Write a sequence for this structure.
C-alpha cells in the first residue's frame, strides 16, 4: 500500500463550470470557489470529531484539473511522456477509450507540470458543432486581451469567419499572441476532439478546420522552437474517422500517444493515496486516520482490473463509499450497500429516478434522451443542450438532477474563455471572476446542460433502454437540427425548408413525439408545412389562372363574388350550422387571412378566423361521419379527407401558437404574482368571466371561452354545452394551461394522484392537493371552476387531450 505520498495537498473546493456556447460550439472554462464541506456529513462514531469534517478526496464523475492536481494519481509515467513530447512536438494527439482519464491527465497532469517548468498559457476548447467559433473564442482573450467580454464575443465571431474563409491563419493569430505575451509559450488544448465527428455535421467545415490546425502545427522535432503546441484528446473509437482524412492520418502515424489501462500498482495509488494524503495534510492522529477495512482495497481491485474505461466508475464508487464511511472506517458493508464499482452509478441513478414523481420521470426520460448523441459505428456520446431546447418546466427538473443530491447532469453558464498562465504569483492573486468574465444574460441560450459523464450512458440500464427505443428518432432528429442550422445560416431561405417525404416524416414524428421536439424544431416543421401549403395553393392558382383566361370578365367577377360569399358563410357559421364541401377552398383562404392577421398583430381577427376554420372542418367532418342522416351526410374522397385533415391541423396549430404568444404570457405572469390566482365571486353577472376576480382564473376562462382567446363559447351563453364547442379547443392549449398551473400551484385540470382517473368523475372535479382553489372547504380542480355547469363535455376533452397524453408518456 502507498504511504504518506508527498504529492497531495488538501485544497478541496467546489467546482463551478462555465461554458461558452456560440453558434452551437462549446468551450469549457473552469474556476473554483472554496467551501468547507464538499460531500456531506459521514455517520458518527467514536473519535469522529476530526474525520467527520473531512472533504471527500475523490472526484466522482468530475474530471481532475489544475485545482485538484495534487489529488491526481496513477498516471505519473504517462504525464512524463506527455511533458517530453511538448519539448519536441507541436501536435500531440492523446487517444484512449472513454473513461480512461484523457482530460484529467492533460489538465491535472501535464498542465501543472508545465506551469512548474516555465511560462505557459493554456487556452482550451471543445470543437462542438462549430469548431471555428470554438477555437476563436478560446484564442480571443490572448489575441485581443484589452476587450471587454461583449467585445470579445463579437471579435470571436469575426475571427471564426476569417478562419473559415482563409483570410486569417492560426499562424497570424499566434504571432500576435507572441507579441502580447513574449515570454510565454502556448499549449492549445482541444478537449474531446471526437466532437468534430459527433457534433459537426458539415464535412466541408470539418475538413477545413483540420486543415487550419494542421497547417499551423508541425510535428517535426526541427520545429520544436515554436511557441505553440496543440494537444488534442480523442476517444480511440473515433480513430477510424480521423484516419479517413489522409492529411490527419499522416500526422497520427507517428505522433499520437495512446493512454492505456492502469496496471495494478497505478490502481492501488488511485484508491489509497487520496485518503492517506488527506490523513497527512489534516495531521490526524493514528486512531483518527481514515482507513480501508482489511481486504477492501483488494476487493475493489478485483472489481476493476482488466476492465476498460473503469476509472469514472471507480471514482464514483469511492466517492459514494466515502459518503457512507463509519467514523474513520471505509467498510465492506458500505461497499456492498452502494453496489460496488460496477453497480454504484446505476444504482444511484435508478434510486434518484424512482424518487421522482411520475410527471418528473417522464420529463427526465425526455431530458436524458436529448442529452445522448447516437453513435454511428461508435459508442453513444453525451451531448450538450441549452435551456431553450427544454423550456422552463423541464429546466427546473434539470436543476434538480444537477443538484448535490442527484449529480446526474451538469449545468453551466456561458462565458468568454479565460486563460491560465504559469506565472504563479499572478495566478494566485487573481479571483475566479477576474479570470472568467461571466455573461449574466437571462437568455435561455446561456444555460446549458450535459450528462455528468459518459459512464452514465454506458452503465445505467434504464437509460440504455430509452436510447435503444429512441435511436432511430434521435438520429433523424440530429439530421433535422443540421437542416435547421443551414436554414438559419441562409437567413431562413425558403429553399432550406422541408418538402415532400421529408416533411411528411417530420410531421409524423411531431405528432407522435411532440414532447421530444424543441420549440425551434417545432417552429421549423410548422414553417415548412405553411410553405408547402402555399406552394400547393400557387400551383392550383396557376392552373386555375390558365382556365380563367378563357372566361369572360363577368364570369371572373362572379367567381370572385362567389368566393367572398363562401368566406362570409364560413365566418358566420354557428354551433348547429351546416358546412358545405364547396366552401373548402374558401376555408383555406380564411386560414391564410388568419396567418396574415397574426403577422400584422391583428390578434382578434386572427383568432376569430382560426376558430371559424376549425369549426368549419369539424362540422364538415361530422357530416361525413353522420351516415344515419342521409339529408346531412356527405361523401368525401380520400384526397378531400386529407385536405380537410391538413386544414384542421394547420388551423389548430396556428391558433395554439397565437394563444401561446399573445395570451398565455399574461396567465403566467398572474400565476407568478402574489395572490395572482384570483377567486370565484358568488354573484350573477351577464358576463360569466366577471364571476371571477381579476387574475389567473379569469384569464384562463377568457382564453378558452371568450373572443379574447379561442372563443369556444359560440352561442355566448357563458358555458360550453355542446361537444363541438369543447372540440374547438386545441389539445396543446389545454396541456399548456395545465403545465403553467402545475408549475406555479398544486392545481390542474384533474387530480393527478388518482389512479382511477379515467373512470372516476370525482377526480376531474375534486383534488385534495389543490389548496388555492376551494369549494366549501374542499380542494377542487381547475375544471370545476372553469367549466362549472358543462363538466361532461369538458371532461371528455380533457381526458382525450391531457390525461391520456400523460399516461401514454409514462
Amino acid at each position: 500500500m502507498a504511504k504518506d505520498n508527498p504529492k497531495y495537498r488538501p485544497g478541496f473546493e467546489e467546482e463551478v463550470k462555465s461554458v461558452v456556447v456560440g453558434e452551437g460550439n462549446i468551450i469549457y472554462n473552469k474556476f473554483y470557489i472554496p467551501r468547507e464541506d464538499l460531500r456531506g456529513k459521514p455517520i458518527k462514531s467514536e473519535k469522529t470529531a476530526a474525520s467527520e469534517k473531512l472533504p471527500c478526496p475523490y472526484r466522482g464523475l468530475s474530471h481532475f484539473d489544475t485545482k485538484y492536481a495534487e489529488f491526481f494519481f496513477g498516471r505519473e509515467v504517462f504525464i512524463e511522456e506527455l511533458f517530453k513530447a511538448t519539448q519536441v512536438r507541436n501536435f500531440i494527439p492523446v487517444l484512449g477509450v472513454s473513461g480512461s482519464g484523457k482530460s484529467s491527465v492533460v489538465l491535472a497532469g501535464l498542465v501543472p507540470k508545465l506551469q512548474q517548468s516555465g511560462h505557459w498559457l493554456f487556452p482550451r476548447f471543445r470543437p462542438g458543432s462549430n469548431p471555428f467559433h470554438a477555437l476563436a473564442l478560446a484564442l480571443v482573450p490572448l489575441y485581443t486581451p484589452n476587450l471587454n467580454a461583449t467585445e470579445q464575443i463579437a471579435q470571436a465571431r469575426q475571427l471564426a469567419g476569417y478562419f473559415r474563409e482563409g483570410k486569417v491563419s492560426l499562424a497570424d493569430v499566434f504571432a500576435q499572441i507572441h507579441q502580447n505575451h513574449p515570454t510565454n509559450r502556448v499549449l492549445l488544448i482541444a478537449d474531446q476532439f471526437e466532437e468534430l465527428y459527433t457534433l459537426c455535421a458539415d464535412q466541408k467545415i470539418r475538413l477545413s478546420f483540420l486543415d487550419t490546425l494542421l497547417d499551423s502545427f508541425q510535428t517535426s522535432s526541427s520545429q520544436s522552437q515554436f511557441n505553440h503546441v496543440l494537444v488534442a484528446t480523442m476517444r480511440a473509437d473515433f480513430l477510424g474517422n480521423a484516419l479517413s482524412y489522409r492529411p490527419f492520418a499522416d500526422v497520427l502515424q507517428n505522433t499520437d500517444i495512446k493512454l492505456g489501462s492502469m496496471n495494478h500498482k497505478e490502481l492501488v495509488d488511485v484508491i489509497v493515496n487520496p485518503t492517506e494524503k488527506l490523513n497527512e495534510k489534516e495531521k490526524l492522529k493514528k486512531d483518527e486516520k481514515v482507513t480501508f477495512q482489511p481486504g477492501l482495497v483488494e476487493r475493489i481491485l478485483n472489481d476493476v482490473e482488466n476492465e476498460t474505461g473503469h476509472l469514472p466508475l471507480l471514482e464514483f464508487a469511492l466517492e459514494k463509499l466515502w459518503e457512507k464511511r463509519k467514523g474513520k472506517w471505509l467498510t465492506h458493508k458500505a461497499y456492498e450497500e452502494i453496489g460496488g464499482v460496477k453497480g454504484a452509478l446505476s444504482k444511484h441513478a435508478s434510486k434518484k429516478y424512482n424518487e421522482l414523481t411520475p410527471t418528473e420521470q417522464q420529463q427526465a426520460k425526455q431530458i436524458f434522451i436529448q442529452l445522448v448523441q447516437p453513435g454511428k459505428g461508435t459508442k453513444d456520446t453525451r451531448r450538450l443542450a441549452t435551456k431553450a431546447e427544454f423550456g422552463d418546466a423541464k429546466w427546473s427538473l434539470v436543476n434538480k438532477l444537477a443538484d448535490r443530491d442527484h449529480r446526474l447532469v451538469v449545468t453551466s453558464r456561458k462565458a468568454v474563455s479565460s486563460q491560465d498562465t504559469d506565472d504563479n504569483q499572478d495566478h494566485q492573486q487573481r479571483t475566479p471572476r477576474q479570470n472568467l468574465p461571466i455573461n449574466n444574460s437571462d437568455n435561455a441560450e446561456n444555460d446549458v446542460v450535459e450528462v455528468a459523464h459518459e459512464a452514465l450512458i454506458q452503465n445505467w440500464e434504464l437509460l440504455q433502454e430509452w436510447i435503444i427505443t429512441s435511436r432511430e428518432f434521435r438520429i433523424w432528429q440530429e439530421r433535422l437540427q443540421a437542416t435547421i442550422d443551414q436554414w438559419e445560416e441562409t437567413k431562413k431561405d425558403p429553399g432550406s425548408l422541408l418538402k415532400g417525404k421529408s416533411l411528411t416524416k417530420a410531421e409524423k414524428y411531431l405528432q407522435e413525439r411532440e414532447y421530444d421536439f424543441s420549440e425551434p424544431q417545432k417552429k421549423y416543421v410548422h414553417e415548412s408545412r405553411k410553405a408547402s401549403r402555399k406552394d400547393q395553393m400557387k400551383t392550383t392558382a396557376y392552373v386555375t389562372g390558365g382556365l380563367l383566361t378563357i372566361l369572360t370578365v363577368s364570369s371572373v367577377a362572379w367567381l370572385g363574388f362567389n368566393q367572398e360569399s363562401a368566406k362570409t358563410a364560413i365566418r358566420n357559421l354557428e354551433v348547429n350550422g351546416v358546412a358545405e364541401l364547396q366552401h373548402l377552398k374558401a376555408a383555406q383562404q380564411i386560414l391564410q387571412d388568419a396567418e396574415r392577421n397574426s403577422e400584422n398583430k391583428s390578434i382578434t381577427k386572427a383568432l376569430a378566423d382560426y376558430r371559424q376554420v376549425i369549426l368549419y372542418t369539424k362540422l364538415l367532418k361530422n357530416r361525413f361521419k353522420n351516415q344515419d342522416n342521409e339529408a346531412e351526410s356527405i361523401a368525401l374522397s380520400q384526397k378531400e379527407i386529407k385536405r380537410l385533415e391538413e386544414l384542421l391541423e394547420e388551423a389548430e396549430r396556428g391558433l395554439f401558437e397565437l394563444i401561446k404568444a399573445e395570451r398565455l404570457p399574461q396567465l403566467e405572469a398572474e400565476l407568478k404574482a402574489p395572490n395572482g390566482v384570483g377567486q370565484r365571486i358568488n354573484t350573477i353577472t351577464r358576463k360569466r368571466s366577471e364571476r371571477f376576480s381579476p387574475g389567473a382564473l379569469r384569464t384562463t376562462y377568457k382564453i378558452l371561452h371568450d373572443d379574447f382567446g379561442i372563443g369556444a363559447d359560440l352561442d355566448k351563453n357563458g358555458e360550453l354545452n355542446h361537444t363541438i364547442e369543447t372540440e374547438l379547443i386545441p389539445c396543446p392549449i389545454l396541456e399548456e394551461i395545465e403545465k403553467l398551473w402545475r408549475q406555479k400551484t398544486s392545481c390542474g385540470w384533474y387530480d393527478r394522484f388518482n389512479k382511477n382517473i379515467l373512470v372516476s368523475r370525482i377526480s376531474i372535479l375534486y383534488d385534495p392537493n389543490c389548496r388555492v382553489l376551494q369549494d366549501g372547504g374542499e380542494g377542487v380542480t381547475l375544471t370545476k371552476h372553469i367549466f362549472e355547469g358543462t363538466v361532461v363535455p369538458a371532461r371528455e376533452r380533457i381526458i382525450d387531450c391531457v390525461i391520456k397524453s400523460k399516461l401514454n408518456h409514462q
Remarks:
- The longest helix spans residues 519-548.
- The longest strand covers residues 13-20.
- The radius of gyration is 32 Å.
